[in-house]
Design goal:
single chain; binds zinc ion; two-stranded antiparallel sheet; about 60% helix; about 15% strand; alpha+beta
Length: about 120
């Protein structure tokens, strides 16, 4: 599980990396991002994993709705239930969860990484 981080160098450069990478800025400064607080990484990967679970859950919900639609109204029901459940899930339910996940991520304190030299 890789956690994206942003290293801000005093030279003004902004380097995007993954936690654990050793980043070298164009100005020559080196940053060892393994110094990123492991609690922070753990929390971020937890949120990432949860998002993945929600996406998988959406597929299951859409599948069940399609089967339900088929039982109730045959192929017409299935054909209507599939796009409808997808719409409800990805336009209604998922964005709400993602907003919450984004809020959770925002509460993680940003650690400062100092240049090695
Ligand atoms: Zn720099």
């Amino acid at each position: 599980m890789s956690v994206p981080i942003v290293v801000r160098c005093p030279c003004g450069a902004r380097i995007e990396a993954k936690a654990g990478d050793v980043v070298t800025c164009e100005c020559g400064r080196r940053y060892d991002t393994t110094a990123v607080d492991s609690e922070q990484v753990r929390l971020a990967s937890l949120i990432q994993r949860r998002n993945k679970v929600y996406a998988r859950l959406g597929v299951i919900v859409a599948g069940l709705a399609t089967i339900g639609g088929f039982i109730v109204a045959g192929w017409w029901g299935a054909g209507l239930a599939l796009p409808f459940s997808c719409l409800v899930w990805w336009k209604g339910v998922q964005p709400r969860w993602q907003r919450r996940a984004a809020a959770d991520l925002a509460t993680i304190p940003k650690s400062r990484i100092e240049a090695e030299r």
